[in-house]
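> example.struct
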């Protein structure tokens, strides 16, 4: 049943991307995945009000798309017509508060539904005729996403005031143990983040890995680690579920083991070669690197869009699992935004 609210907003928002997006996706299939979130987990409002899970997911998606904080998302749901129309919330109903939105997002993260939702959206885009999962070549790379926390490590020595007034004496084993037990080390609140020096600059945070299709640049696969993890060591993990004719990566992934892995998977080698001490690259290897580098621009464009448009140069949450979930939500937004520019919606 169409409400007066929907009739009014339809006319005002006829050119809105969100209305086009609402028609492009089969939300019933998305809602089936959300059934894994128990109803009791959604009830965070006073009086046990049950919010519709699909509306909640759409709200979370808008928060990631526009890089809104939970309070900012709550406010936007109250004042923006396109947000109300897209999610289905309106002022006649209870708008979820920031705590409810945060808890729902955390439930999706805990159950790893972010990855399942990302895969479902990709399947639907594939059915619209877009080359997402079945790209000719998969382009792999990683970028640094800084932690939401400030890195700090403070060592605080707490000394009893009474002992300050004691006469100086030779330290005994018992005194040393007592002082050692009173040394407190305060780590960063984001304990999964790690330091990485790149060039002359040091970063504290995570590495986010992305596989993009060589044709249109849709994000096919995602993965996240602490910033200090080796890129070459994560190659097999990020490529595990990839079906493509060729896998392309820069010199950071160069290893005999990774090339053999592609060969065993019957995927053509597209990993650039890296010179070693006393072993310069051959003419053929230099030519090979040049050909691969010309096709790898697509992954740089992907990271550029994620960081500029979707503001993902810095994480919004603490912990590896939450950062990886944010990567998946941002990747959904990235793919949907690209699809809106390529698919004609009537």
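> example.seq
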């Amino acid at each position: 049943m169409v409400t007066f609210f929907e009739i009014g907003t339809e006319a005002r928002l006829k050119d809105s991307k969100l209305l086009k997006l609402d028609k492009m996706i089969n939300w019933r299939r998305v809602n089936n995945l959300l059934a894994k979130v128990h109803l009791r987990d959604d009830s965070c409002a006073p009086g046990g009000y049950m919010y519709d899970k699909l509306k909640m997911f759409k709200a979370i998606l808008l928060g990631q798309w526009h890089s809104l904080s939970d309070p900012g998302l709550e406010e936007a749901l109250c004042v923006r017509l396109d947000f109300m129309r897209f999610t289905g919330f309106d002022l006649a109903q209870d708008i979820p508060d920031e705590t409810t939105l945060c808890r729902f997002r955390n439930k999706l993260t805990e159950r790893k539904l972010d990855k399942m939702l990302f895969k479902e959206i990709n399947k639907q885009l594939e059915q619209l005729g877009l080359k997402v999962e079945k790209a000719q070549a998969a382009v792999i790379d990683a970028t640094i996403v800084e932690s939401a926390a400030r890195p700090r490590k403070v060592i605080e020595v707490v000394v009893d005031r009474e002992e300050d007034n004691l006469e100086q004496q030779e330290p005994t084993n018992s005194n040393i143990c007592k002082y050692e037990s009173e040394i407190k080390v305060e780590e960063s609140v984001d304990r999964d983040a790690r330091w990485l020096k790149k060039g002359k600059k040091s970063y504290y945070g995570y590495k986010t890995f992305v596989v993009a299709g060589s044709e249109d640049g849709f994000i096919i696969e995602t993965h996240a680690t602490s910033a200090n993890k080796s890129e070459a060591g994560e190659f097999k993990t990020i490529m595990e579920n990839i079906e493509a004719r060729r896998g392309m990566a820069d010199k950071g992934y160069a290893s005999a083991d990774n090339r053999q892995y592609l060969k065993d998977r019957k995927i053509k080698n597209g990993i650039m070669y890296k010179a070693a001490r006393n072993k310069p690259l051959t003419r053929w290897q230099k030519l090979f690197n040049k050909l691969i580098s010309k096709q790898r621009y697509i992954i740089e464009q992907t990271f550029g869009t994620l960081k500029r448009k979707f503001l993902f140069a810095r994480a919004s949450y603490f912990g590896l699992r939450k950062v990886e979930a944010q990567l998946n939500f941002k990747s959904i937004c990235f793919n949907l935004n690209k699809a809106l520019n390529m698919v004609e919606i009537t």
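> remarks
The chain has 16 helices and eight strands.
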